[in-house]
Amino acid sequence: MNAPTSPPAARRRRPKPARLSLPERxxxxxxxxxxxxxxxxxxxxxxxxxxxxxxxxxxxxxxxQGLLQKGHGMALAGPGSTAIAYRDRNVHLTDLKRRxxxxxxxxxxxxxxxxxxxxxxxxxIHEVLKARAGLVVATNNLGVAYACTFNTSVSLFVFGGYVxxxxxxxxxxxGGRPSDRFRFDLAIVGANAIAPxxxxxxxxxxxxxxxxxxxxxxxxxxxVVQADKFGxxxxxxxxxLRQVSVLITNCDPATRLDDPSVLQGTTVAIxx
Length: 272
Hints:
By secondary structure, this protein is α/β, with parallel strands linked by helices. The protein has helices at residues 8-12, 22-36, 41-48, 52-64, 86-90, 94-102, 126-129, 142-151, 205-216; strands at residues 38-40, 68-71, 74-77, 113-116, 136-139, 155-158, 161-163, 170-172, 184-189, 193-194, 199-202, 218-224, 236-240, 246-249, 267-270.
């Protein structure tokens, strides 16, 4: 006679995680957002051993302190902050970032006026710019400004404003709109996420108005993004792939989109 066995449900049952105290939950929530860029309410509730309602109350308190912003069913980095610390992003996938930026050389003509946007991807852009004469470069990226100052002969303009915490990003607040001062041949920008419908997204709402004005003042827009940005999540709309002239990435973007036809007017450069 066979020995009785435990019911399947009992074998699959997992112990519940320990219930975290309020300070422990807040530390866990902020840490998760800093390391991952965002976290779902359901996931945080499971990790902290509490209900989703409790997590929503926690998020409301943390948002009021400027530590994060609430999205639909999730939490993201707060305005004026960066989801992942600059020092961590600056050493992440450095070789890939250099290869992505190197492809910009195919699209930058001598004598051009350029805007270079935020992101550690552009920290090596001076390696492309130094070989071209007569460039004017405007930026709100301190990393780009520093590298161009000491490694190129470009005429450099830096937009003024507040510097984002733990980052090299300037959130411009002075001197009027970019379109009042410049007409760019190329606006070179990055993004935090690209939705399956082709919407280009960023985490920080303080970036959006300035960046959209830059794009409106540019003859062509170049978007440089790593493959992991496709399908990632961020709450604020910057643009759409239909408005992008050139897309530089390390994957076939058509396989990451619901409707690949949004790329019909875009030159796609795939970096191996």
